[in-house]
Amino acid sequence: MTRVSTNMTTDTVQFNLSRQEAKVNKANSQMGSQNRIQELRDDPIAAGHLVRYQSYLTRVNDFEKNAQTLSDEFAVREGYMNTSLDMLQRIRELAVTGANGLNQKDDLKNMALEIDQLLQQLVQNANAIGPDGNSLFAGTNVKATAFDIEMGNTEGSAQPLIESVRYNGNVAANRIEIDENKYMTTDNAGNRTFWAEKQQLFGGRDAGSWQAAKDSTISIDGTQIKINAGDNVYALASKINESNAAVKASIDPVSRALNLVTVDARQLWLEDVDGTALSDLGIIKGSGQHPPYNLGDSVRVSGGSMFDTVIALRDAMLAGDTESIGGRMLGSIDSSIDNLVTRLAKSGSEYERAQQNITRNSATALNVNQLISTEGDLDFTKAVTDMKMLDYVYQATLSTVGKMYQSSLLNYMR
Protein backbone atom coordinates (compact mmCIF):
# COMPACT_ATOMS: atom_id res chain seq x y z
CA MET A 1 0.00 0.00 0.00
CA THR A 2 1.45 3.37 -1.06
CA ARG A 3 1.17 6.26 1.35
CA VAL A 4 -0.11 9.43 -0.27
CA SER A 5 1.63 12.59 0.92
CA THR A 6 2.24 16.09 -0.39
CA ASN A 7 5.83 15.17 -1.43
CA MET A 8 5.00 11.88 -3.13
CA THR A 9 4.18 13.36 -6.52
CA THR A 10 7.29 15.53 -6.58
CA ASP A 11 9.60 12.69 -5.46
CA THR A 12 8.14 10.29 -8.04
CA VAL A 13 8.53 12.82 -10.83
CA GLN A 14 12.15 13.59 -9.89
CA PHE A 15 13.00 9.89 -9.63
CA ASN A 16 11.60 9.13 -13.09
CA LEU A 17 13.27 12.17 -14.63
CA SER A 18 16.64 11.11 -13.14
CA ARG A 19 16.21 7.60 -14.46
CA GLN A 20 15.40 8.93 -17.94
CA GLU A 21 18.43 11.23 -17.84
CA ALA A 22 20.64 8.26 -16.87
CA LYS A 23 19.35 6.26 -19.82
CA VAL A 24 19.92 9.20 -22.18
CA ASN A 25 23.47 9.72 -20.83
CA LYS A 26 24.25 6.02 -21.24
CA ALA A 27 22.97 6.08 -24.82
CA ASN A 28 25.08 9.18 -25.52
CA SER A 29 28.16 7.44 -24.07
CA GLN A 30 27.54 4.35 -26.19
CA MET A 31 27.16 6.41 -29.34
CA GLY A 32 30.20 8.53 -28.52
CA SER A 33 32.48 5.52 -27.93
CA GLN A 34 30.62 3.21 -30.36
CA ASN A 35 30.94 0.50 -27.71
CA ARG A 36 27.88 -1.37 -26.49
CA ILE A 37 29.45 -2.33 -23.16
CA GLN A 38 30.20 0.63 -20.90
CA GLU A 39 30.34 -1.34 -17.66
CA LEU A 40 30.81 -5.03 -16.88
CA ARG A 41 27.26 -5.31 -15.59
CA ASP A 42 25.89 -4.27 -18.99
CA ASP A 43 26.66 -7.79 -20.31
CA PRO A 44 28.99 -9.84 -18.04
CA ILE A 45 29.34 -12.79 -20.43
CA ALA A 46 30.09 -10.63 -23.47
CA ALA A 47 32.49 -8.51 -21.39
CA GLY A 48 34.43 -11.63 -20.40
CA HIS A 49 34.69 -12.73 -24.02
CA LEU A 50 35.73 -9.23 -25.06
CA VAL A 51 38.61 -9.08 -22.58
CA ARG A 52 39.95 -12.43 -23.79
CA TYR A 53 39.62 -11.44 -27.45
CA GLN A 54 41.39 -8.13 -26.92
CA SER A 55 44.21 -9.84 -25.01
CA TYR A 56 44.63 -12.41 -27.76
CA LEU A 57 44.59 -9.68 -30.44
CA THR A 58 47.46 -7.90 -28.67
CA ARG A 59 49.50 -11.11 -28.66
CA VAL A 60 48.73 -11.81 -32.35
CA ASN A 61 49.89 -8.31 -33.28
CA ASP A 62 53.11 -8.90 -31.31
CA PHE A 63 53.63 -12.21 -33.12
CA GLU A 64 53.20 -10.46 -36.46
CA LYS A 65 55.72 -7.77 -35.49
CA ASN A 66 58.21 -10.45 -34.36
CA ALA A 67 57.86 -12.31 -37.67
CA GLN A 68 58.25 -9.07 -39.61
CA THR A 69 61.42 -8.19 -37.69
CA LEU A 70 62.83 -11.66 -38.37
CA SER A 71 61.91 -11.41 -42.04
CA ASP A 72 63.70 -8.07 -42.39
CA GLU A 73 66.77 -9.42 -40.59
CA PHE A 74 66.89 -12.50 -42.84
CA ALA A 75 66.62 -10.30 -45.95
CA VAL A 76 69.50 -8.04 -44.87
CA ARG A 77 71.69 -10.98 -43.86
CA GLU A 78 70.94 -12.83 -47.09
CA GLY A 79 72.13 -9.83 -49.09
CA TYR A 80 75.58 -9.99 -47.51
CA MET A 81 75.71 -13.76 -47.94
CA ASN A 82 74.84 -13.51 -51.64
CA THR A 83 77.58 -10.92 -52.14
CA SER A 84 80.05 -13.19 -50.36
CA LEU A 85 79.01 -16.10 -52.59
CA ASP A 86 79.68 -14.01 -55.71
CA MET A 87 83.14 -13.18 -54.40
CA LEU A 88 83.88 -16.83 -53.65
CA GLN A 89 82.91 -17.71 -57.22
CA ARG A 90 85.36 -15.08 -58.48
CA ILE A 91 88.07 -16.43 -56.15
CA ARG A 92 87.45 -19.91 -57.53
CA GLU A 93 87.84 -18.62 -61.09
CA LEU A 94 91.19 -17.09 -60.13
CA ALA A 95 92.24 -20.33 -58.43
CA VAL A 96 91.40 -22.39 -61.53
CA THR A 97 93.26 -19.90 -63.72
CA GLY A 98 96.28 -19.91 -61.41
CA ALA A 99 96.40 -23.71 -61.25
CA ASN A 100 96.66 -24.35 -64.98
CA GLY A 101 100.47 -23.94 -64.98
CA LEU A 102 100.44 -21.45 -67.86
CA ASN A 103 100.89 -18.31 -65.76
CA GLN A 104 104.15 -16.60 -64.95
CA LYS A 105 105.07 -15.82 -61.37
CA ASP A 106 104.27 -12.14 -61.88
CA ASP A 107 100.83 -13.07 -63.21
CA LEU A 108 100.14 -15.09 -60.07
CA LYS A 109 101.20 -12.13 -57.91
CA ASN A 110 98.80 -9.88 -59.78
CA MET A 111 95.99 -12.38 -59.19
CA ALA A 112 97.01 -12.52 -55.52
CA LEU A 113 96.40 -8.77 -55.28
CA GLU A 114 92.79 -9.21 -56.43
CA ILE A 115 92.30 -12.14 -54.07
CA ASP A 116 93.55 -10.02 -51.18
CA GLN A 117 91.00 -7.33 -52.00
CA LEU A 118 88.26 -9.95 -52.19
CA LEU A 119 89.43 -11.30 -48.83
CA GLN A 120 89.11 -7.86 -47.28
CA GLN A 121 85.59 -7.55 -48.67
CA LEU A 122 84.68 -10.99 -47.31
CA VAL A 123 85.79 -9.92 -43.84
CA GLN A 124 83.85 -6.68 -44.25
CA ASN A 125 80.71 -8.66 -45.11
CA ALA A 126 81.23 -10.98 -42.16
CA ASN A 127 81.48 -7.94 -39.86
CA ALA A 128 78.34 -6.33 -41.33
CA ILE A 129 76.12 -4.26 -39.07
CA GLY A 130 72.35 -4.35 -39.49
CA PRO A 131 69.96 -1.36 -39.56
CA ASP A 132 69.48 -1.66 -35.79
CA GLY A 133 73.21 -1.33 -35.16
CA ASN A 134 73.68 -5.00 -34.25
CA SER A 135 76.28 -7.32 -35.72
CA LEU A 136 74.64 -9.69 -38.22
CA PHE A 137 77.01 -12.66 -37.82
CA ALA A 138 78.12 -12.63 -34.17
CA GLY A 139 75.47 -14.89 -32.64
CA THR A 140 73.86 -13.19 -29.65
CA ASN A 141 76.99 -11.12 -28.98
CA VAL A 142 75.47 -8.48 -31.25
CA LYS A 143 77.46 -5.51 -29.96
CA ALA A 144 80.82 -7.12 -30.75
CA THR A 145 82.68 -7.19 -34.03
CA ALA A 146 82.07 -10.69 -35.40
CA PHE A 147 85.61 -11.30 -36.64
CA ASP A 148 88.94 -9.85 -35.55
CA ILE A 149 91.78 -9.67 -38.07
CA GLU A 150 95.51 -9.90 -37.46
CA MET A 151 97.91 -8.30 -39.90
CA GLY A 152 101.37 -9.69 -40.64
CA ASN A 153 104.21 -9.74 -43.10
CA THR A 154 103.78 -12.21 -45.96
CA GLU A 155 106.52 -13.42 -48.27
CA GLY A 156 106.12 -11.81 -51.68
CA SER A 157 104.32 -8.70 -50.41
CA ALA A 158 105.91 -5.39 -49.55
CA GLN A 159 103.11 -4.41 -47.16
CA PRO A 160 101.36 -6.14 -44.25
CA LEU A 161 98.45 -8.36 -45.25
CA ILE A 162 95.70 -10.15 -43.36
CA GLU A 163 97.43 -13.07 -41.65
CA SER A 164 94.54 -14.59 -39.68
CA VAL A 165 90.86 -14.03 -38.95
CA ARG A 166 89.46 -15.04 -35.56
CA TYR A 167 85.83 -15.37 -34.60
CA ASN A 168 84.80 -12.99 -31.82
CA GLY A 169 81.08 -13.83 -31.45
CA ASN A 170 79.34 -16.84 -29.93
CA VAL A 171 77.14 -19.74 -31.04
CA ALA A 172 74.09 -18.92 -28.92
CA ALA A 173 70.76 -18.52 -30.73
CA ASN A 174 67.70 -16.39 -30.05
CA ARG A 175 64.23 -17.95 -29.84
CA ILE A 176 61.56 -15.59 -31.16
CA GLU A 177 57.88 -16.32 -30.45
CA ILE A 178 55.81 -16.19 -33.64
CA ASP A 179 52.68 -17.95 -32.35
CA GLU A 180 51.31 -19.26 -29.07
CA ASN A 181 54.28 -21.21 -27.61
CA LYS A 182 55.78 -21.56 -31.11
CA TYR A 183 59.26 -20.19 -31.73
CA MET A 184 61.73 -19.58 -34.54
CA THR A 185 65.41 -19.97 -33.73
CA THR A 186 67.78 -17.49 -35.33
CA ASP A 187 71.20 -19.03 -35.91
CA ASN A 188 73.53 -16.30 -37.13
CA ALA A 189 76.89 -17.53 -35.82
CA GLY A 190 79.62 -16.40 -38.20
CA ASN A 191 81.82 -19.41 -37.48
CA ARG A 192 79.17 -21.52 -39.22
CA THR A 193 78.21 -19.23 -42.10
CA PHE A 194 81.79 -18.38 -43.05
CA TRP A 195 83.34 -21.79 -42.48
CA ALA A 196 84.86 -23.97 -45.17
CA GLU A 197 85.20 -27.56 -43.95
CA LYS A 198 84.12 -29.96 -41.27
CA GLN A 199 86.32 -29.42 -38.26
CA GLN A 200 88.02 -32.47 -36.77
CA LEU A 201 89.68 -32.65 -33.38
CA PHE A 202 92.09 -35.48 -32.58
CA GLY A 203 92.83 -35.77 -28.89
CA GLY A 204 96.43 -36.32 -27.90
CA ARG A 205 95.88 -37.84 -24.46
CA ASP A 206 95.17 -41.49 -23.65
CA ALA A 207 91.65 -41.51 -22.19
CA GLY A 208 91.34 -45.26 -21.69
CA SER A 209 91.60 -44.99 -17.91
CA TRP A 210 89.60 -41.77 -17.57
CA GLN A 211 86.54 -41.87 -15.36
CA ALA A 212 84.29 -39.01 -14.25
CA ALA A 213 84.92 -38.34 -10.56
CA LYS A 214 81.56 -36.55 -10.08
CA ASP A 215 78.49 -35.40 -11.91
CA SER A 216 79.37 -32.66 -14.37
CA THR A 217 78.16 -30.86 -17.49
CA ILE A 218 79.94 -30.05 -20.73
CA SER A 219 78.82 -27.89 -23.63
CA ILE A 220 79.54 -28.93 -27.22
CA ASP A 221 78.50 -26.55 -29.95
CA GLY A 222 76.00 -24.89 -27.62
CA THR A 223 74.39 -28.17 -26.49
CA GLN A 224 74.79 -29.16 -22.85
CA ILE A 225 75.57 -32.80 -22.08
CA LYS A 226 75.27 -34.30 -18.60
CA ILE A 227 78.04 -36.61 -17.35
CA ASN A 228 77.40 -38.90 -14.40
CA ALA A 229 79.97 -39.89 -11.84
CA GLY A 230 81.67 -43.11 -12.97
CA ASP A 231 81.16 -42.56 -16.72
CA ASN A 232 84.17 -43.57 -18.82
CA VAL A 233 85.25 -42.12 -22.16
CA TYR A 234 83.13 -44.62 -24.10
CA ALA A 235 80.01 -43.56 -22.20
CA LEU A 236 80.93 -39.93 -22.85
CA ALA A 237 81.31 -40.57 -26.59
CA SER A 238 77.92 -42.32 -26.62
CA LYS A 239 76.23 -39.39 -24.87
CA ILE A 240 77.75 -36.93 -27.33
CA ASN A 241 76.51 -38.98 -30.28
CA GLU A 242 73.02 -39.24 -28.79
CA SER A 243 72.77 -35.50 -28.08
CA ASN A 244 71.46 -32.80 -30.40
CA ALA A 245 74.94 -31.42 -30.98
CA ALA A 246 76.06 -31.41 -34.62
CA VAL A 247 79.15 -33.39 -33.60
CA LYS A 248 80.15 -37.04 -33.68
CA ALA A 249 82.57 -38.55 -31.18
CA SER A 250 84.79 -41.60 -31.50
CA ILE A 251 87.63 -43.25 -29.63
CA ASP A 252 90.90 -43.76 -31.46
CA PRO A 253 91.64 -47.53 -31.42
CA VAL A 254 95.38 -46.96 -31.05
CA SER A 255 95.84 -43.90 -28.86
CA ARG A 256 92.46 -44.34 -27.09
CA ALA A 257 92.03 -40.58 -27.29
CA LEU A 258 88.68 -38.82 -27.75
CA ASN A 259 88.13 -37.57 -31.33
CA LEU A 260 85.42 -35.14 -32.42
CA VAL A 261 84.21 -34.20 -35.90
CA THR A 262 81.40 -31.84 -36.90
CA VAL A 263 78.61 -33.10 -39.14
CA ASP A 264 78.85 -30.01 -41.39
CA ALA A 265 81.15 -27.07 -41.96
CA ARG A 266 81.43 -25.24 -38.64
CA GLN A 267 83.88 -24.43 -35.87
CA LEU A 268 83.68 -26.53 -32.72
CA TRP A 269 82.65 -24.74 -29.53
CA LEU A 270 83.76 -26.66 -26.43
CA GLU A 271 83.59 -25.72 -22.76
CA ASP A 272 83.21 -27.21 -19.29
CA VAL A 273 79.99 -25.80 -17.83
CA ASP A 274 80.23 -27.66 -14.51
CA GLY A 275 83.29 -29.72 -13.66
CA THR A 276 86.50 -30.34 -15.59
CA ALA A 277 85.73 -33.32 -17.83
CA LEU A 278 87.00 -31.86 -21.12
CA SER A 279 90.02 -30.35 -19.35
CA ASP A 280 90.89 -33.68 -17.79
CA LEU A 281 90.70 -35.33 -21.21
CA GLY A 282 93.09 -32.70 -22.60
CA ILE A 283 90.52 -31.46 -25.15
CA ILE A 284 90.48 -27.90 -23.78
CA LYS A 285 92.94 -25.94 -21.69
CA GLY A 286 90.58 -25.13 -18.84
CA SER A 287 87.91 -22.72 -17.72
CA GLY A 288 90.31 -19.78 -17.79
CA GLN A 289 90.13 -19.51 -21.58
CA HIS A 290 87.01 -19.07 -23.67
CA PRO A 291 86.00 -21.02 -26.78
CA PRO A 292 86.59 -21.47 -29.61
CA TYR A 293 90.33 -20.87 -29.11
CA ASN A 294 90.70 -22.86 -25.89
CA LEU A 295 91.76 -26.22 -27.35
CA GLY A 296 94.41 -28.23 -25.55
CA ASP A 297 98.01 -28.06 -26.72
CA SER A 298 98.08 -31.77 -27.57
CA VAL A 299 94.93 -31.59 -29.74
CA ARG A 300 95.40 -31.71 -33.51
CA VAL A 301 92.87 -29.75 -35.56
CA SER A 302 91.89 -29.86 -39.22
CA GLY A 303 89.28 -27.91 -41.14
CA GLY A 304 89.29 -24.12 -41.21
CA SER A 305 87.25 -21.11 -42.24
CA MET A 306 86.81 -19.71 -45.73
CA PHE A 307 89.10 -16.87 -44.64
CA ASP A 308 91.86 -19.40 -43.89
CA THR A 309 91.32 -20.89 -47.35
CA VAL A 310 91.50 -17.54 -49.15
CA ILE A 311 94.55 -16.49 -47.14
CA ALA A 312 96.31 -19.75 -48.03
CA LEU A 313 95.38 -19.32 -51.70
CA ARG A 314 96.71 -15.77 -51.76
CA ASP A 315 99.97 -16.79 -50.10
CA ALA A 316 100.38 -19.72 -52.52
CA MET A 317 99.96 -17.37 -55.47
CA LEU A 318 102.49 -14.96 -54.03
CA ALA A 319 104.89 -17.90 -53.66
CA GLY A 320 104.07 -19.27 -57.15
CA ASP A 321 102.99 -22.66 -55.73
CA THR A 322 100.64 -23.86 -58.50
CA GLU A 323 100.52 -27.41 -57.14
CA SER A 324 98.94 -26.30 -53.88
CA ILE A 325 96.56 -23.96 -55.70
CA GLY A 326 95.06 -26.70 -57.86
CA GLY A 327 94.90 -29.31 -55.11
CA ARG A 328 93.80 -28.85 -51.54
CA MET A 329 92.97 -25.14 -51.80
CA LEU A 330 90.65 -25.50 -54.76
CA GLY A 331 88.81 -28.27 -52.92
CA SER A 332 88.53 -26.10 -49.82
CA ILE A 333 87.11 -23.24 -51.87
CA ASP A 334 84.50 -25.59 -53.29
CA SER A 335 83.63 -26.63 -49.72
CA SER A 336 83.28 -22.96 -48.76
CA ILE A 337 80.90 -22.37 -51.65
CA ASP A 338 78.86 -25.47 -50.79
CA ASN A 339 78.55 -24.42 -47.16
CA LEU A 340 77.54 -20.85 -48.03
CA VAL A 341 74.93 -22.13 -50.49
CA THR A 342 73.54 -24.39 -47.76
CA ARG A 343 73.41 -21.50 -45.30
CA LEU A 344 71.69 -19.34 -47.93
CA ALA A 345 69.11 -22.06 -48.50
CA LYS A 346 68.50 -22.27 -44.74
CA SER A 347 68.17 -18.50 -44.46
CA GLY A 348 65.80 -18.44 -47.44
CA SER A 349 63.59 -21.14 -45.95
CA GLU A 350 63.48 -19.28 -42.63
CA TYR A 351 62.56 -16.09 -44.47
CA GLU A 352 59.67 -17.88 -46.20
CA ARG A 353 58.47 -19.30 -42.89
CA ALA A 354 58.54 -15.82 -41.35
CA GLN A 355 56.55 -14.48 -44.32
CA GLN A 356 53.97 -17.23 -43.91
CA ASN A 357 53.59 -16.34 -40.25
CA ILE A 358 53.13 -12.67 -41.11
CA THR A 359 50.33 -13.58 -43.52
CA ARG A 360 48.67 -15.98 -41.07
CA ASN A 361 48.86 -13.59 -38.11
CA SER A 362 47.46 -10.77 -40.23
CA ALA A 363 44.47 -12.94 -41.19
CA THR A 364 44.04 -14.06 -37.58
CA ALA A 365 44.01 -10.44 -36.43
CA LEU A 366 41.18 -9.67 -38.86
CA ASN A 367 39.15 -12.61 -37.55
CA VAL A 368 39.70 -11.62 -33.93
CA ASN A 369 38.72 -8.03 -34.74
CA GLN A 370 35.48 -9.40 -36.14
CA LEU A 371 34.85 -11.28 -32.90
CA ILE A 372 35.57 -8.13 -30.89
CA SER A 373 33.18 -6.20 -33.10
CA THR A 374 30.46 -8.81 -32.65
CA GLU A 375 30.74 -8.78 -28.86
CA GLY A 376 31.39 -5.12 -28.12
CA ASP A 377 30.54 -2.83 -31.03
CA LEU A 378 27.35 -0.82 -31.01
CA ASP A 379 24.55 -1.35 -33.54
CA PHE A 380 24.49 2.27 -34.59
CA THR A 381 21.10 2.16 -36.37
CA LYS A 382 19.40 0.63 -33.33
CA ALA A 383 21.22 3.04 -31.01
CA VAL A 384 19.98 6.10 -32.94
CA THR A 385 16.41 4.76 -32.87
CA ASP A 386 16.61 4.05 -29.13
CA MET A 387 18.11 7.48 -28.53
CA LYS A 388 15.24 9.16 -30.34
CA MET A 389 12.71 7.15 -28.32
CA LEU A 390 14.42 8.04 -25.03
CA ASP A 391 14.51 11.69 -25.99
CA TYR A 392 10.81 11.55 -26.94
CA VAL A 393 9.90 9.96 -23.59
CA TYR A 394 12.02 12.52 -21.73
CA GLN A 395 10.37 15.44 -23.48
CA ALA A 396 6.91 13.91 -22.91
CA THR A 397 7.70 13.53 -19.20
CA LEU A 398 8.80 17.15 -18.94
CA SER A 399 5.63 18.25 -20.74
CA THR A 400 3.41 16.24 -18.38
CA VAL A 401 5.17 17.58 -15.29
CA GLY A 402 4.80 21.11 -16.60
CA LYS A 403 1.05 20.69 -16.94
CA MET A 404 0.82 19.22 -13.45
CA TYR A 405 2.45 22.24 -11.90
CA GLN A 406 0.83 25.07 -13.90
CA SER A 407 -0.87 26.50 -10.78
CA SER A 408 1.11 28.97 -8.73
CA LEU A 409 0.57 30.97 -5.53
CA LEU A 410 -1.07 33.75 -7.50
CA ASN A 411 -3.94 31.40 -8.47
CA TYR A 412 -5.00 31.28 -4.80
CA MET A 413 -4.78 35.04 -4.19
CA ARG A 414 -7.69 35.99 -6.42
Q: Write down how many β-strands occur, each being a DSSP E stretch of 2 or more residues.
A: 11
Secondary-structure content class: alpha+beta
Rg from alpha-carbon coordinates? 38 Å
Give, in order, the helices and strands: HHHEEEEHEEEHEEEHEHHH
Could you describe the largest sheet, including whether it forms a barrel?
A: 4 strands, antiparallel
Enumerate how many helices there are, as a single number.
9
Distance between the termini: 37 Å
The percentage of residues in β strands lies in 5-15%
Average residue pLDDT: 85
The helicity comes to 40-55%
For the largest sheet, list the strands in their spatial order: 8-9-5-11
Shape, principal axes of CA atoms:
elongated
Which regions are unreliable across 5 or more consecutive residues at pLDDT < 50? none
